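I had to read the description of the data format several times before I understood it. In essence, backbone conformation is discretised, so a fold becomes a row of integers matching the chain in length. I therefore recommend that a typical entry be quoted early in the introduction. For illustration, here is how one protein appears when written out as sequence plus structure tokens.

***
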Amino acid sequence: MDPAHQAMMAALRSIRNQADSVLKNIEESNEQRSMRWKCKECRYTKHFTRPVPVEAAGKCPRCKSTEFRPIL
């Protein structure tokens, strides 16, 4: 291959990798995280030491519900 073509291919691969990385970061930032989650049924508040997704909240210790909303 011509060196100019190889340089162009390398530049395009670099751009693609950067775009993929940015898209991955955007998808991760769309995931809602909170340090406190409130149960929608019994209004119990679960506290965490750092922001966690709703999946980490698990079940409510009082009513065993899995429905939480973030407290910002």
